């Protein structure tokens, strides 16, 4: 009866850990070293790294590589990109893991080790495979991004994909005041919480709208006619829609046709004019874009005018 129970526990472990296990775990199941030697001799199992086995002889999947990494450095969890991939799928290398700052971990090819004093507090050891909390992984990735645009993309993409919320990310950030770019991360997350859900939308907000004093619009407003969807920017009082047109995200004939249909529906059924703004208008020509949007708003009843931004070359100052 004991052997049956031990085999059952072992098989459950193999299923839970994608066919990866350690020598210590085999012994904890009630089996002995002779059992391990027999599995290895028969080539039913192979050694991945010392003390960690894979229960087949073929190529390892990404999840199996992840399990090998965390079990080899146990207690450890997936972090950074690897933690995100454990949730979303995917399989890029190297594998990133997190361990306590006071530990010394053997360096392994294809594995990047990160250290934190609060590793245990932010780790979820009950996950399969174990990983850092998702908000922590996203904050780490954003903080280490190569550009401000990449920071915005990391944060806004995570919220738009409904992996988490801006408020949860803000709470995680609040607990890490010394992390790189903390002030910028906080500003971006506040904007994301308020409806700026892409690099282009954030560019319009921070380069066109806010520095030039355009009126505050509603973001992500639901359409009232035609296809269901969300308007990127809606100046409700003036009947003006601004769609942030990032061709990267919907550059197909079907997607373009749907965009045009939404614009037509807004004009016919809602009596709203639609302007489409792309990366060039938001980033390269932000000042002239603000001027043009302001002129349209004036025509529709806005009584103020766009203000010059801090740039010495702002075209509005030259009017």
UniProtKB/TrEMBL annotation:
Protein name, as recorded: AbiEi antitoxin C-terminal domain-containing protein
Source species of the chain: Gordonia malaquae NBRC 108250
Domain of life: Bacteria
């Amino acid at each position: 009866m004991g052997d049956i129970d031990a085999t059952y526990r072992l098989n459950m472990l193999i299923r839970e850990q994608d066919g990866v296990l350690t020598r210590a775990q085999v012994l904890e199941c009630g089996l002995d070293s002779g059992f391990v030697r027999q599995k290895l001799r028969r080539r039913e199992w192979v050694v991945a790294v010392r003390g960690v086995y894979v229960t087949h002889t073929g190529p390892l999947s990404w999840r199996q590589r992840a399990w090998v990494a965390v079990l080899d450095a146990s207690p450890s969890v997936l972090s950074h990109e690897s933690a995100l991939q454990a949730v979303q799928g995917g399989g890029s290398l190297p594998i990133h893991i997190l361990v306590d700052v006071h530990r010394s971990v053997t360096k392994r090819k294809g594995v990047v080790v990160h250290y934190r004093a609060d590793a245990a507090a932010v780790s979820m050891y009950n996950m399969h495979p174990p990983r850092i909390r998702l908000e922590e992984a996203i904050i780490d990735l954003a903080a280490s991004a190569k550009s401000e645009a990449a920071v915005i993309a990391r944060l806004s993409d995570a919220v738009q994909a409904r992996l988490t919320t801006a408020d949860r990310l803000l709470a995680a950030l609040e607990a890490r005041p010394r992390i790189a770019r903390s002030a910028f991360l906080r500003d971006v997350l506040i904007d994301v919480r308020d409806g700026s859900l892409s690099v282009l939308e954030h560019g319009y907000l921070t380069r066109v709208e806010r520095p030039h004093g355009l009126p505050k619009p509603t973001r992500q407003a639901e359409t009232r006619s035609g296809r269901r969807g969300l308007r990127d920017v809606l100046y409700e009082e003036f009947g003006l829609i601004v769609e942030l047109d990032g061709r990267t995200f919907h550059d197909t004939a079907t997607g373009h046709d749907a965009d045009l249909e939404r614009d037509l529906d807004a004009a016919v059924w809602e009596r709203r004019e639609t302007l489409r703004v792309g990366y060039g208008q938001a980033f390269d020509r932000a000042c002239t874009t603000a001027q043009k949007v302001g002129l349209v708003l004036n025509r529709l009843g806005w009584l103020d005018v766009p203000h010059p931004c801090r740039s010495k070359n702002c075209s509005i100052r030259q009017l």
